[in-house]
Design goal:
It is a single chain. The chain is mostly helical. It is about 70% helix and about 0% strand. The chain is built from 15 helices and no strands. The protein has helices at about 10-15, 20-35, 45-50, 55-60, 65-70, 80-100, 100-120, 135-150, 155-160, 160-180, 185-200, 205-225, 235-250, 260-270, 280-289. α1 (about 10-15) packs across α2, α8 runs parallel beside α11 (about 185-200) and α13 (about 235-250) runs antiparallel to α14 (about 260-270).
């Protein structure tokens, strides 16, 4: 009888897709570093996550735009980390081998950032988001774009059994994320769309034109997420005042951070148009220190 083919070792898998395994290792390292520096139970508390760089809409509104990138390297507990590591190996290795290391890494990061932007735009204030799933949905989008490139038309694409299987699984996860689990479906959708679009761009025969279109759309998403012109709503102002107070006092498990407190208080005070507003009072207290 012919011998069964030898299965590649983990080391051989890592050599074939070093970026995939490097990102997985980075997520694990970040998780344990947070655990060594905080008193949380497996990085599940909001204070630890926000301090480390989790995504949250009002923190972005006061200028902490880097959160749309850093959130993708944080995870909320062991199960969250373990599932995303498992999914990343399954999805990412094949896509990296098709696209190459540089293009794969670019699409992964762009998808994560795009997912973070969409999440910040549609989530309620104080909705804290963390995890690699936005980027991972982007890799699923990349798989769909690659699949479409192998087929003659979009009609054939939607008739294709593997494509239908992927789309069905996406739908199942969206339903689960909406009903059973607290998933950030906005980040998933944003990552999926950015992953498809960016892969479509890098595999286009007219890469320069596709790059211009993609860069314009992605730049518009970044600008609209930052919204430096935005005047906070009453609900957003209340949340900003709340964060200004807890960062000022170092309360509710948060560390004292006067610079961050000042940003929140200034934004909320200017939105209130009232010098006796709580946020304005916090501003004056900060100035006295």
């Amino acid at each position: 009888m012919p011998e069964a083919p030898r299965q590649p070792t983990l080391f051989e898998h890592a050599r074939r897709a070093p970026v995939t395994y490097g990102l997985a290792a980075l997520n694990v390292v970040v998780f344990f570093v947070l655990e060594s520096k905080h008193s949380s139970v497996w990085s599940t508390d909001i204070q630890t996550l926000l301090d480390a760089g989790a995504n949250e809409p009002t923190h972005l509104l006061v200028g902490e735009y880097w959160r749309v990138a850093t959130y993708m390297f944080l995870h909320i507990g062991w199960l969250h980390l373990g599932w995303n590591i498992y999914a990343s190996i399954g999805f990412c290795e094949a896509v990296e081998r098709v696209l190459g290391r540089v293009r794969f890494l670019g699409i992964y990061l762009l998808s994560g950032i795009g997912g973070g932007c969409v999440s910040a735009l549609v989530s309620h204030p104080m909705a804290v988001s963390a995890g690699a799933s936005g980027a991972l949905f982007g890799i699923v989008g990349a798989m769909l774009a690659i699949r479409r490139r192998t087929l003659p038309s979009f009609a054939a694409f939607f008739r294709d059994p593997p494509t239908r299987s992927i789309l069905f699984n996406i739908g199942v996860w969206m339903v689960i994320g909406s009903i059973a689990l607290r998933m950030d479906n906005a980040a998933h959708v944003g990552g999926l769309l950015v992953g498809f679009a960016s892969t479509w761009m890098v595999t286009s025969r007219r890469v320069h034109l596709a790059s211009i279109v993609f860069a314009t759309a992605f730049g518009a998403l970044l600008i609209f997420t930052a919204r430096p012109w935005h005047k906070p709503s009453p609900d957003e102002t209340k949340v900003m005042t709340h964060f200004a107070a807890i960062y000022f006092e170092g309360a509710q498990g948060f560390h004292e951070n006067l610079a961050r407190s000042s940003r929140f208080a200034s934004k909320a005070c200017n939105a209130n148009d009232a010098s006796d507003a709580p946020a304005c009072q916090i501003m004056r207290e900060i100035e006295r220190r």
